[in-house]
Design brief:
The structure is a homodimer of 142-residue chains. With 142 residues, the first copy, chain A, is mostly helical. Helices cover 60% and strands 3% of the residues of chain A. The first copy, chain A, has one domain: Multidrug-efflux Transporter Regulator, Chain: A, Domain 2. Chain A has 5 helices and 2 strands; from the N terminus they run ααββααα. Chain A has a two-stranded antiparallel ribbon with strand order 1-2. At the A-B interface, helix 4 and helix 5 of A face helix 4 and helix 5 of B. The structure holds a DNA duplex (30 and 30 nucleotides).
DNA sequence: CCTTGCCCTGACGCCGACGTCAAGGCTTAG
DNA sequence: CTAAGCCTTGACGTCGGCGTCAGGGCAAGG
């Protein structure tokens, strides 16, 4: 099959496939006229790449899986190098989720504080100096 | 104070301050010789920006906070536009954390499956066709 | 006068994963 | 013959938030 068909069957674009080839991730055979040719095995490799990409893996991180499949394994994660990538990714995800959760809590507190400050200041109760200045963002919005 | 001092006091770089100015976020007055001049208020604005940046806010998302401070409010989140940004960010964070958590679970399952498959295949028990192919990644590493 | 240490503008580099043109070749149907 | 619809390479654009020169100016101390 040619590049357009493979791209369509994998739900991606020809540009992406040429990019993978340039990166050495998914090399292609060529026909006489220079057209790239792929087989079902390439589709499988490609699907493995896309799945991992969907999980947020970098392209380079998919390489062990692809090489594992190319080495004849039925699953891309049958090789130690792939498992290593899994474990590293889990650590990264845990760290990231932890950070984001902390940030979420912090932002949540800020919002609560700001809202209560706003409520508390209603009727200019806590501002002896007069009414507080007002944001002038009325007219045009982006 | 000049740009170098402000940068140092805020723990950032002069390049960053010039960038903020170019983006219209933190304009500077100028001395006769063209040097940028800042005051304590600018330091406050800058700290607000950096804090939000540390939370993962885009530069554009900090703008309402900066304008709020510039409008005379003691807090950058005293304005409705800032609160809107908070809320949007919370939604984004929740969505992102949710996705990442789902991915983490999925990757965790893949790892468990791959590991158990590996264990199960120990001693070539489940491979009638002979020993499984081995990943050849030995020689050179990146 | 010269060096040192600030400051200035302008402009390219970076990173990742492609998108999007440009300019052209092959093949097949009409 | 020609147009349509594939394919080719090459190369620049995108996005954010700066880093890093290059080439120069200004001010103060020795």
């Amino acid at each position: 099959m040619r590049i357009g068909e493979l791209a369509a069957r994998a739900g991606t674009t020809t540009r992406t496939l040429r990019y993978y080839e340039a990166r050495g991730l998914l090399p292609a055979r060529r026909t006489d006229n220079g057209y790239r040719t792929y087989d079902e095995g390439d589709l499988k490799l490609l699907r493995q790449i896309r799945t991992l990409q969907d999980f947020g893996f970098d392209l380079e991180e998919t390489r062990p899986f692809v090489e594992c499949l190319r080495a004849g394994h039925p699953e891309g994660d049958a090789c130690p190098a792939s498992l290593q990538v899994y474990r590293r990714k889990l650590d990264e995800l845990d760290a990231l989720i932890g950070e984001l959760t902390a940030v979420r809590a912090q932002v949540g507190r800020q919002l609560a504080r700001a809202e209560s400050a706003r409520d508390g200041l209603a009727a200019d109760a806590a501002v002896p100096g007069g009414p507080e200045p007002v944001c002038e963002l009325g007219g045009r919005q982006r």
